[in-house]
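User: Okay, second chain of the day. Same drill as before: sequence in, structure tokens out.
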Amino acid sequence: MTTSNAFDAAVHPYTREMAMIHRVFRRESRLLGELVQDVPPGDTVRARVLAEHWRQYTVGLHAHHTGEDELLWPAVLPHLDLDAEQVLAMEAQHRELDGGIDEVRVLMDRWRERALVEDRDELAEALRRHHRQLCAHLDEEEREVMPLVALYVDEERWRAVGERGLAETPKERLMIALGAILEDTSPEERQEFLTRLPVPARVVWKLLGQRRYRRETTRIRGRRAGG
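Assistant: Same drill. Structure tokens below.
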């Protein structure tokens, strides 16, 4: 599954910003499967680190999908006729993804206790399935639905989606979330995104946030921290 965007993200600031957020979930879902597969049998310390990272990942993904279901899609649907099926399909796919996440959660809880090799391998395969399912969903959303968002969602509603996401992110995780979004951005995307932040947030990112994010990724990714 390619991680390239399925639509031209340059055509509208909303679709461009959504592409940046989707990159986070594509990257982290891929890395989770790889990182779990790398854990030596019996290394419960490492297993618990990754289990907590999975928990943080699912919290973020759930908040992202809930924000779409409750704020974005209701703003788009009244304007649609046949295209409404495409938006409703996104809600259905969110529910299908929840089923895969529940499966991973059960396997993750079992593996973290003893880090047995057979549990690790079953979990890694479930994580790979989740990654493939998620990428297929994001590709379809970007290709079919985000152009509709660009047409029918106004600035006030888009800002409300972002503010909701911020409100649901614990304060101690804000710089981690910012680093995750900025990690794979182009210089132009990075500059544009940072410019929209309040000046105090930009100062905190420059002085503290970048180092905090590097420490976090090193702790989570280990030898994969460079990739």
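The first helix runs from residue 13 to 38.

User: Thanks, on to the next one.
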